[in-house]
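Recap from last week: sequence in, structure out.
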Amino acid sequence: MISSNSNGIAAQLIDVHKVYRMGTQEVKALAGVSIEFEAGSFWAILGPSGSGKSTILNLLGCLDRPTKGRYLLTGQDVSTLDDDQLSDMRLGYLGFIFQSFNLILQSTVSENIQLPLYYMGWDPLKSEDRAMELAKRVGLEERMNHRPMELSGGQQQRVAIARALANDPAILLADEPTGNLDSATGNEIMNLLLELNRQGKTIIMVTHEPELAEFASHRLFMRDGLIERIES
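Predicted structure tokens:
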């Protein structure tokens, strides 16, 4: 998997605006955001409700399109792609970690981890080997045949992280990844993300907790749809 373009930029937003229409009203979620996310960096995006941080994550995740401006993912302009093309970009370049884990409750740990590989058309035996490799990476190799409800919240989030890594994504996108966990378990998950970043994975995380943002090497503060400041 390509992890960056030639100049080491994993993702780039160029004068990005996002306007949502609610009835007859327009809501400006982003009002001209330009930023580069270097390959191998770890970013935390912070800001009050309505600041635009979730909108940025949705755009970076190819879950939405900018109203105006450009989004380059590993050097490719994805701003004007159709839904099928955006789906291909998500499957090929992105991994997602959600606050609510989003696991399939009827499936085993192994099956949950393999889900992206199924959509990519992997051979089942290779897919199983990849799932075991990733389960070991997150410390769950003894839980491969368990189902999510048989796991703790922290273990469920580890499954979600393993699944997010299955396609060897260029970027891991994390939306409040510790929001449903107690503080001790949350710190375990953050240390796992930190270790993945040290191994070279680009991570962009939305959080409302300043102490968790300290795990990141860069902190992006949003307010009123604009970048308020960046700390490194």
